């Protein structure tokens, strides 16, 4: 996926008075929190380190704090303006402007859990071919678990700029990795979450 493609989509959405779910291009707060809930319930985060890839304005850390989850959080996003806004909204949390998919990014660092919400949503023209590379990279950054979500192919009201996945196709891609995979497909009609636990 081309970084400029991501920047062109999200940078114009960023503003201090705009709700975070709109900046992240989610339909509403409820759907955003439904996604966060799958993460919080799907893996043990207590006293773990968590890398939030594509953190946007940092809503995940606020959600976890609201649930009383004590986690060592780092949010990363490739858009500098997004990180500035995340720091403004959540000054106690740690954020870095970095693209973890670039060579050398986060060199030598690993996290217990890696989460990526919405990072595979934009249609870049090579999503199907690029997913294995990106999943492999996120697994390199993770000690214990990787959790990410995808837009579901059963959605009929589609955005032309988004990419929609069939869970069966995703499972076939994931089977090449030495990981225990679970797909959660019952929380939103247009979304599903993949949880991968390292053996």
UniProtKB/TrEMBL annotation:
Domain named Methyltransferase is located at 51-139
CDD domains, sorted: AdoMet_MTases (cd02440)
Q: Does the keyword Chaperone apply?
A: no
A single BP term in Gene Ontology: methylation
Pfam families given for it? Methyltransf_25
Q: Which Gene3D superfamilies match?
A: Vaccinia Virus protein VP39
User: Taxonomically, what lineage is the organism?
Assistant: unclassified sequences, metagenomes, ecological metagenomes
Give yes or no: UniProt keyword Membrane: no
GO molecular-function annotation terms? Answer: methyltransferase activity
Q: Where, if anywhere, are coiled coils annotated?
A: none
Q: Which UniProt keywords apply?
A: Methyltransferase, S-adenosyl-L-methionine, Transferase
Q: What is this protein called?
A: Methyltransferase domain-containing protein
Organism of derivation: marine sediment metagenome
